[in-house]
Amino acid sequence: MELANTQKSRFPFTPFANGWFRVAYSDELHPGQVKPLYYFGKDLVLFRTDNGTPHVLDAYCPHLGTHLGHGGQVKGESLRCPFHGWCFNGKGQCVDIPYSSKIPSKAQIHAWSVREINGVIMVYYHTQGEPPTWEIPKLPELTFSEWTPFRVVSRRKIRSHLQETKENLIDVGHLYGTHLVDSVEDGTLHIDNQVLKWLYCASSKNIRSTPETKACIEQTLYGLGYIIHRYRVKLPFEYEYMVVFYDTPIDGEYLDYHYLFSIKKLPNEEITSVMEEQTLQIFHQEADKDIPLWENKLYLSSPLLCDGDGPIMQFRRWASQFYTDVPVTTEVLVEQS
């Protein structure tokens, strides 16, 4: 059994997978506002121009190295450096120097591809700086009156890798060991280019005081940075809820780990409120169980699996497309009873 090289990293691949990642929520950035960011091991600057368009640039002015996120000001549709007043548009091009009539040809800052969708500002990361080849879809439930407003219910910094937190979704065996699930059925995996969908049903007598809880779960991954969980839970009555995960690499060790929550409204407003709070409490409790495991485990390139572990290797082959020049892992030891 091969262990990952632990001298520099617990993982045998880059910490920064290609794809779309959250860097802010829309309501955190008003027109004219500027924010410093640190993601993908880089200092960045986020700003919203007067017309409402968000932009992300590398943080440092090419003139004398000023961090534009600290003291930079929006001036119409450009960002003004606080040191010498050089102005850069959303494409990173210098468009004005207040004391010079000639702009140097190399007065350019790297501009990131940005999309504002589903109430979130996202950037596209690619190891070699290539433009996006796919897009994040709209989330219809955001505008459906049948669903409660989405709430940001968790923001934290965790020591793990994008691939580990997503592989966890496919790892059926950990549902028994970590989350005290009694049975799992109907596991179905669908892959369509950058989108992976995993559907299954799980039953438990341990999560609630009721005789049994059965939840049918649909997990849709759009790359490794944006995941939608849809749950249909069967108690004496049936209800639905949704959790949207956004994981963004901070550096080689840590992720910015966020998730949002909404529940489909029940006929009674009071019951909806009670179920929302109870479900949130249970979800927090269960989600928190995974984090110390992620933060302290090793990634095994050639794991020893059994027939109940779920489609882990299929997931790894799918995930390999988000790395540049990384070979697909195919070697695996499987023992079946």
Instruction: Tell me the overall shape.
Output: globular
What is the arithmetic mean of pLDDT?
A: 91
Percent helix, as a range, is 10-25%
The H-and-E topology, N to C, reads as EEEEEEEEEEEHHEEEEEEHEHE
- Which stretches of 5+ consecutive residues score pLDDT under 50? 1-7, 327-337
Q: Report, as a whole number of angstroms, the end-to-end distance.
A: 20 Å
Spatial sequence of strands, sheet with the most strands:
11-17-16-15-14-13-12
Quickly give the structural class. Answer: alpha+beta
What is the strand content? 35-45%
Q: How large is the radius of gyration?
A: 22 Å
Query: The biggest beta sheet, please?
Result: 7 strands, antiparallel
Number of strands: 19
Helix count from the secondary structure assignment: 4
Short structural description:
The chain is an alpha+beta fold. The protein contains four helices and 19 strands.
Task: Give the topology, please.
Blueprint: E1 19-25, E2 34-39, E3 42-48, E4 54-58, E5 73-75, E6 78-80, E7 87-89, E8 94-96, E9 113-117, E10 120-125, E11 151-158, H1 162-170, H2 173-177, E12 183-192, E13 195-204, E14 213-222, E15 226-234, E16 238-249, E17 255-263, H3 269-296, E18 304-306, H4 312-319, E19 333-335
Parallel strand pairs: 18-19
Antiparallel strand pairs: 1-10, 2-3, 3-4, 5-6, 6-7, 7-8, 9-10, 11-17, 12-13, 13-14, 14-15, 15-16, 16-17
